[in-house]
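How a chain folds remains the central question behind the approach discussed here. No coordinates are needed to read the tokens, only the vocabulary itself. For completeness, the protein is quoted in full, as a sequence line and a line of structure tokens:
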Amino acid sequence: MIKFLDMKEKLNSQKPSAFCMFGNDAWVKKRALDNLVSIYQVDKQFGFDTLVNPTMDDLQLACLTPSMFCPIKMVVCEDFKAFLAKPTMEQKRKKTDVRSQLQKLVASANGEFCLVIVADDKAPFEGINGMEMLDCSKLDTQSVARWIVSFAKRQNVQIDGACATRIANYCLNDMARISTETQKLIDYGTVTLETVDLLVHKDVEYAVFHLSGSIASKNAQQAIGLYKGLVAQGEDPRGLFALLYNFYRRAYYAKTSAFSAEELAKYLSVKASAIGFAKEIAGKYKAMQLKRALDLFGNADQKLKAFLDEDQIMTTLIMQLVAL
């Protein structure tokens, strides 16, 4: 299996004729496909074909029909539902099921085509000889920071690890945002912690994490200042209430659950980085304190539903959380 960040190194010495590009990050998948086009020197005008939900016959025809103008043709297959259909016993006996046909197609590759199957999960395609698994899952903070440093270096700009990590945190490891914000810093010219703070737009969820940190540290003045600053930037008090409640809810589960960060992220339908932030704050509380915090949110929610002053409710709630 090849990780996204290791593509160029791994494919420098070997060039498989088939890939299963799996994962849950659309930006990473798009960039990985761009890398493959570059590495295999594919002409996107004459040697590139995209199939959506094809039959096996469609796939075979596309792969086995060479390009008249290019030495290698790249066939990208998306939403390959035919592969997921359960084969009949007769198909298995005659080896005419889709899996057998795909294995035969990959085995027949002679360098004239490169097949790229785009999928959410690699499991259905594992065990097909000659098909390389290309991991395009969401990157963790360390991997994102590594990408930022490398991306800047290619443009002759130095970004150290601390700055790269801060950029990743401010953008919650969202690669689409990170690429834009990093390029903005590179265009500015000098990348320091100060310029990162000045120029990189902080994701509102990161701002809520920062607010939660001030609350957990019992710094009431800083916490109220951060809240007021977010409102001044246009954030709605009721929206901030929801974000702060969800954060403390994650912190409670992170504190009381035996699940891993990845498992919790899946069950709570959030990014793994969000659970990482919650775990950090949860470490500053006892479980009973977090339970009392959720009770405070419940009381505040009742007041919001009664249409009392939202700003006053949030200010009081923050002071109550600080006092836990």
User: Anything to note?
Assistant: Residues 111 and 293 are 61 Å apart (CA to CA).
